[in-house]
């Protein structure tokens, strides 16, 4: 017979693990494995998703137009070369009436797309100045309009080459200069947009305010000037 006190004070380690009468002990649960920074490990299932540490400083995207003034300058030179190519095409290509009609439709549609997007972007700035939205909302909305603005401008230039412009006219030359200035102004506006986005949580500096006002003014002058000259040439040539 066993003494009750001996049974109460006995511990599991006191009985042999293989004895017939000993209760089977459950194995202790394994400690939770954490993949925190103290281990500097990667879970096996995510090993292919994360990059090595020595690649952390490498950018995940190529340089964009708003990253460097050198890239903006190169894009401006390319735009000037494309403008010269368009002028050469307009002077050396004979356009039949059907193609002229199609080009005119594309020209008007591009004007609605590009100029309309510019007006909406400037309206968002006015809404911010009136205190009805935050600067982040205005900049975010204007940033989504970059694609239709550039698409409209490209459509205007490409279709204009097939509208047989009178390159000997002084007004037509002024219009081409306005379009080139508009393109360069749009390229540097990408840099401005990035600078404002970086300081959206702080009050804008006087330099950024003057820069933004000048960019908007140049954009409006070039757009309205080009539209006015185009309308004048269309009315003058129809007489």
TrEMBL record:
Domain of life: Bacteria
Alphabetical UniProt keywords: Membrane, Transmembrane, Transmembrane helix
Keyword Membrane listed: yes
Region (Disordered): 1-51
Membrane-crossing residue ranges in chain numbering: 69-90, 102-125, 145-164, 176-196, 208-232
Protein name: Uncharacterized protein
Species assigned in the record: Rhodococcus daqingensis
């Amino acid at each position: 017979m066993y003494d009750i006190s001996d049974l109460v004070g006995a511990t599991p380690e006191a009985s042999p693990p293989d004895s017939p009468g000993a209760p089977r002990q459950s194995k202790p649960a394994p400690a939770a494995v954490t993949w925190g920074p103290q281990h500097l490990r990667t879970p096996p299932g995510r090993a292919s998703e994360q990059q090595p540490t020595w690649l952390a400083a490498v950018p995940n995207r190529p340089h964009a137009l708003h990253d460097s003034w050198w890239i903006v300058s190169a894009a401006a030179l390319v735009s000037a070369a494309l403008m010269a190519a368009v002028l050469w095409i307009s002077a050396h290509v004979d356009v039949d009436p059907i193609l002229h009609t199609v080009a005119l439709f594309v020209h008007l549609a591009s004007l609605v797309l590009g100029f309309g997007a510019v007006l909406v972007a400037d309206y968002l700035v006015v809404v911010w100045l009136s205190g009805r939205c935050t600067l982040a909302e205005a900049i975010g909305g204007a940033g989504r309009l970059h694609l239709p603005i550039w698409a409209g401008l490209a459509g205007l230039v490409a279709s204009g080459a097939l509208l047989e412009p009178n390159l000997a006219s002084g007004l037509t030359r002024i219009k081409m200069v306005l379009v080139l200035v508009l393109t360069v102004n749009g390229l540097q506006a990408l840099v401005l947009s990035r600078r404002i986005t970086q300081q959206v949580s702080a009050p804008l500096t006087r330099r950024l305010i003057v820069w933004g006002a000048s960019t908007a003014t140049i954009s409006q002058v070039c757009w309205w000037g080009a539209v006015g000259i185009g309308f004048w040439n269309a009315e003058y040539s129809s007489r």
